[in-house]
Amino acid sequence: MAFIFEPVARPALPIVGTDKLFPVRRVYCVGRNYAAHAREMGGDPTREPPFFFQKPADALQPVPHGTVVDHPYPSKTANYHFELEMVVALAKGGRDIPVDKALDCVFGYAIGLDMTRRDLQDEAKQLRRPWEPGKASDLSGPVGPIYPAASVGHKLKGPISLTVDGVVKQKADLADMIWSVAEQISYLSAYFEVFPGDVIFSGTPDGVGAVTRGQTMVAAVDGLGEISLKVV
Predict the structure, then answer these.
(1) Beta pairing class for 27-31 and 199-201
(2) Shortest CA distance to 205 belongs to which of 175, 163, 170?
(3) CB-neighbour burial class of residue 214 (10 A; exposed 0-12, middle 13-18, buried 19+)
(4) Which residues are paired to 55 by β-bridges?
(5) 31 near 54, Cβ under 8 Å?
């Protein structure tokens, strides 16, 4: 029997100021990259090196500006958490990239959410199993449009915040990162060859928490606008 496979479109994100799309290759996420969040998750920010996990590229959910996008509450969880992040999109890659050259690889920046089935992640931690059931559910990576660094510069500092139904839940400054964007790229490239199209979720501030159906999340990063999602 002959099988006919329908072509699957490569995930892509809109680029601000153009009608072009940024095709996504891989999605890397850095864990516990704000000191207060590391502590709230039981870590020690003074001792732990950066670590990374991945989401499938097709777990990204593009979120246009100026709209409230429906975000489906996933199955198999009763504790679904938001984690606000700045997303870094790469236009260049390589191996063992020096820190002082790393920002040359950046195409642009966007707002993202690392949505997490926390109960499944906690169970995986206890059983020493992979995190994918907790971190890689469908549409678990809402991302706003990408702002080219050529237009907004490199995002080294500035407010980052998230509200749920108008109540502030997360609020910090990009300068509070333990490992800078350049350091993240350099460190990551020692483990994997990075390529154009790779994106990095650069860590979340403290204040992560659960959302339920009917609630609306609004995430903002200085200079990158805001994105809005209603959990359905």
Answers:
(1) parallel
(2) 170
(3) exposed
(4) 27
(5) no
138-164 pLDDT per residue, tens: 999 999 999 999 999 999 999 999 999
* Rounded Cα gap, residues 41 and 37, in angstroms: 6
Is the CB of residue 147 less than 8 Å from the CB of residue 110?
yes
> What is the 3 state secondary structure string of 48-80?
CCCEEEEECHHHEEECCCCCEEEECCCCCCCCE
Q: How far apart are CA 159 and CA 144, in angstroms?
A: 16
Give the contacts of 38 (CB within 8 A, at least 6 positions apart): 32, 44, 45, 48, 178
pTM comes to 0.93
**Which residues are paired to 23 by β-bridges?**
12
Residue 136, Cβ neighbours under 10 Å: how many?
Answer: 19
Q: Which two tokens stand for residue 197?
A: 């199209």
